[in-house]
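Q: What would this chain look like folded?
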Amino acid sequence: MASCWCVIVASSCATGGPADPARDVNARADGAAASTDASSRDDASDRSETGACRGERCDEIDGDSDGVPARTDCSDRDPSVGSTQDAACMTECGSGVRRCMDGWWGECSAPRACDCATGTSPRTIDCGNCGSQRQTCEDGRWVDDGACAGAGACAPAAEELGGGCGHCGLLRRVCGSDCAWGAWLCEDEGACRAGTDESRTETCGACGEGTRSATRRCDATCTWSAWEPGSCTTSATCSPGETSAETAACPGGCGTTQQRTRSCDATTCTWGAYGAWSTCPACGPSCGDGACGGTETCASCSDCRNGHLGTADGGGSCAGVPAETWRCVYSPMFRAYTSQVCRGGIWQIFVIGPRDCATCVCAFNASCCAASGCT
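A: My prediction, written as structure tokens:
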């Protein structure tokens, strides 16, 4: 494909290839004729395919005496061109520019592939937000003809967020298929309004028989706190499974006790009635009550020792006491302890000052005798 390019500083134009400093050092971008002196020939032999001087002498050569060495001069035959230069260029698809930097020429910026052909009818394309754009073909490229027409406020399915709303929610709206915004909707709201309180009545107590008031508060994130219960109002007097016992003395003064129990009603949490009393043991002799009875004997109980070690003179009645029962008591008459024996229904003095008064009891033994003996 043939191409033509032109340098901005001159009006010359070449065809049949990139006849510019990038291709031919004898046809420079300034259009000047190539020098035929020796130094110029050396310069030409050191040029690369891009037109840049790359020989060993390139830093010494300055063909146009502009102070820029040939190595970095975009045109070493034009003193008005230094190390940078732009040159116009074009292709079948349009015009462009070639740029030289430090003696190196870049490619033409003109489009190499054509979008359209000259003479093609105008077209209309989508320009966003449901709008349309008229374009015409210029230099092989589609060019907007005027502004985008009929565009809406937004693109379909686009979203827009607003401020806060409701219970810590956020306003949001969505663009419809007609490129118009839909209504604002409050979304992602919490369960309550921040700072509000709520109360309720709950059952309580071990049997659920009582009531109490509970409260909760909506926090700054519009979320309810846990319920906080108050005190329970209840008629319960016990807990299911609980028992209690009552103890009392047995009748008859025997010194024993009896017991009865009651249980907690699992439905009402109140005490049920007491059950029957436990059975009292039969009353029997009780040593120490001052009476000798039942199976009590002189040997087994002090109540049956007839005042032993007490105070009494001889001659007193011993009715009801088995004959030959012995005791030792203090005699006020003799002002001394005496051993006595029950004979003929009276207490008879056996010895004044027995050998061992404490052990002369119930039955005769040597302790009942005087220290000198029983004779």
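The first strand starts at residue 4 and ends at 7.
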